[in-house]
Design a protein that fits this description.
The complex is a heterodimer of chains A (about 325) and B (about 280). Chain A is an all-alpha fold and about 325 residues long. Helix content of chain A is about 80%, strand content about 0%. In chain B, about 35% of the residues lie in helices and about 25% in strands. The chains are: A mainly alpha (about 325), B alpha/beta (about 280). The interface of A and B includes residues 14, 114, 117, 120 and 124 of A.
């Protein structure tokens, strides 16, 4: 257990740039955009006498300072909850790119620079080494990304509170009480394992490529599934038995390459009931999370991903250089 | 006590070449063994087999374990420096010490810091900022702080200047080696390890062509400096090598009678390099 913690720490040392600083930059950009929004709102308010500005920073600024009704205040709460989710969502988009390239090089770079001979000179098993990379990608990095995104969100909320205060509003009753940050946090934490399970086919595939190929892991990782998809299409055109196109691309190719993106969310949003209103019902409902965990494709993918991780471990045992 | 390393019929072939051609050898504990051979002779393959880094055919026991199947346990007791500059470039000196201390139960942190204090290495430095010599100093400090029973060194001083090379072997001998430890080293800089070795193994084309203790080598081989007029007499005794220096001939004999040789001229123990060159004649032809 102690060894495993050191292994994960080692991953973090190597990839601090992608795992921490990329998140800090994207959080900082969101904060900056919000700040600019507030400044533009302030200028517009002064120019138009504070009435009909359309500027929105989490909530519509015009409404916020213009004695909102109870219904409007309730809307503020939902809008802020949605912003909280979207801050984390944007962070996870950035993270998805970082993780894709992290996983692709995780077992390749050490063979290329021959540092694998140093790592293998220590009493650490190949299994633990590979699993530490899986845990880094599915637990450590997402948690760091979430903490940074939430810090950015709360910084924006504080700026918004100052803005309300400046214009005679009470931030506690207008912003903090109507929104549900704790409830959102619980939902986001529940979504973490869902993200991880969803990502497993991609995690497994990229680690497998990273551990197996002698050159150009990116090309292998991307071209092989694409070629399989195209080949399947050709076979289909010839009228021979094949996997249905949508299934091949959505369940196969996309899950193998795009799993670090929280695709389950888009998948489930597309199948929401017709009268669903994210502002009223909340973007990330418990029912939606429940439906996520109930997807058979989630578990099938996770199983396939685990098998590929096992193969990657076998390759790491065998290959000690390129 | 039984041998630390025992190999029987070790065989390994790559696609076009045979790297190990059924070699057998033993390494006893408390020895410093030099595994010497020309490029491509199978040195690195033999070390990789011992370290469980490659598959092979035959029987091999290292500290009573099979490196193919019990590698994780084996590495608790075995350290190695595979080659210069295999430390990853992004690693910080301090993090490297923390990491090895974190994962290795036999690592002595205080000892490592004591070794590092003798160098110019700073905890915040990254490997990419270090010279080749400093990287090896770091690697050596890490390895010497591990209380392992077997240390394997594969060309550890390749590309280093003479100061670093001398310091490397001196540290090993003074601060690391004792009766409980065994060192197996390969290098091309034979002159520099010669005086620290207790045993010598020559490997050529995947076969062991010489396997003896340094004492036995001193008894078995002799060099004689012979004047030109007695050269034919020396040749009649069947030397394994002959070279000319300042009008005299130097003959290298394997197992010749020492009294007979002394009659021919001045005798001495041959340098390992000369023995090596004589043994490996025609390797690249």
């Amino acid at each position: 257990m102690k060894t495993f913690a050191w292994l994960v720490k080692r991953e973090y040392w190597e990839r601090r740039g992608g795992m921490l600083w990329a998140q800090v930059v994207s959080g900082g950009v969101m904060l900056l955009v919000s700040l600019v929004g507030l400044l533009i709102g302030e200028v517009a308010l002064r120019a138009h006498g504070g009435m009909d500005t359309q500027i929105q920073v989490g909530v519509p600024l015009g409404q916020l300072i213009n004695h909102p009704t109870a219904a409007q205040i309730a809307q503020f709460g939902h809008a802020l909850d949605a912003s909280m989710i979207s801050f984390v969502g944007i962070g996870s988009m950035v993270l998805a790119f970082v993780l894709f390239f992290y996983l692709l090089s995780a077992l390749y770079d050490e063979r290329k620079d021959r540092s694998i001979l140093f790592w293998k000179s220590l009493p650490v098993s190949d299994r633990d080494t590979v699993l530490s990379k899986v845990v880094t990608a599915t637990v450590l990095a997402p948690v760091i990304a979430m903490i940074v995104a939430l810090a950015a969100y709360f910084a924006v909320l504080i700026l918004l509170s100052l803005f309300a205060l400046l214009h005679g509003g009470n931030p506690v009753t207008l912003l903090w009480l109507p929104s549900h940050p704790l409830l959102m946090l619980v939902k986001l934490v529940i979504a973490l394992p869902l993200n991880a399970l969803w990502a497993l086919p991609t995690v497994g595939w990229l680690l497998l490529c990273s551990s197996a190929v002698r050159a150009a892991p990116f090309l292998w990782a991307v071209l092989l599934p694409l070629a399989a998809g195209v080949l399947n299409g050709v076979v289909r055109l010839m009228g021979l038995p094949s996997i249905p196109g949508a299934m091949m691309w959505n369940m196969g190719v996309l899950r193998m390459l795009g799993g670090t993106f929280p695709g389950w969310f888009a998948h489930l949003m597309a199948t929401q009931p017709r009268d669903f209103d994210p502002l009223r019902d909340g973007v990330l409902g418990f029912d939606l999370l429940g439906r996520g965990y109930a997807m058979p494709s989630l578990w099938i993918g996770a199983l396939i991903g685990s098998v590929m991780i096992a193969v990657a471990i076998a390759f790491r045992r065998r290959n000690s250089d390129l | 006590m039984s041998a630390l390393i025992e190999a029987r019929g070790l065989r390994k072939r790559y696609r076009n070449t045979i790297a190990l051609d059924g070699i057998s050898f033993k390494v006893e504990p408390g020895r410093i063994v030099g595994l010497i051979g020309p490029n491509g002779a199978g040195k690195t393959t033999a070390l990789k087999a011992i370290l469980g880094l490659t598959d092979f055919d035959g029987d091999l026991s290292v500290l009573g374990l099979d490196p193919r199947t019990q590698r994780d346990r084996l590495m608790q007791q075995v350290s190695f420096i595979a080659d210069v500059a295999v430390l990853p470039r992004w690693l910080r000196v301090g993090d490297a010490v923390d990491y090895v201390g974190g994962v290795h139960p036999r690592f002595n942190r205080a000892r490592c810091e004591q070794f590092l204090a003798r160098t110019k290495l700073q905890s915040r430095m990254k490997v990419r900022e270090l010279s080749k010599g400093m990287i090896v100093q770091l690697h050596l400090a890490l390895v010497m702080a591990i209380d392992a029973r077997l240390l394997v060194l594969d060309e550890p001083t390749l590309g280093l200047d003479i100061l670093y090379r001398k310091q490397f072997y001196q540290s090993l001998l003074e601060d690391y080696f004792d009766a409980e430890k065994t060192i197996l080293v390969t290098t091309h800089q034979v002159e520099e390890v010669e005086h620290i070795l207790t045993d010598l193994m020559f490997i050529r084309d995947g076969r062991i062509v010489l396997d003896a203790s340094m004492d036995a080598i001193g008894e078995r081989y002799a060099e004689v400096l012979v004047n030109a007029d007695r050269a034919d007499a020396a040749r009649a005794l069947g030397p394994i090598d002959e070279r000319q220096v300042f009008g005299k001939s130097i003959f290298l004999f394997d197992g010749a009678d020492s009294a007979q040789l002394a009659a021919l001229g001045e005798t001495r123990r041959p340098a390992v390099v000369d023995l090596f060159v004589a043994t490996m004649k025609g390797t690249y032809a």
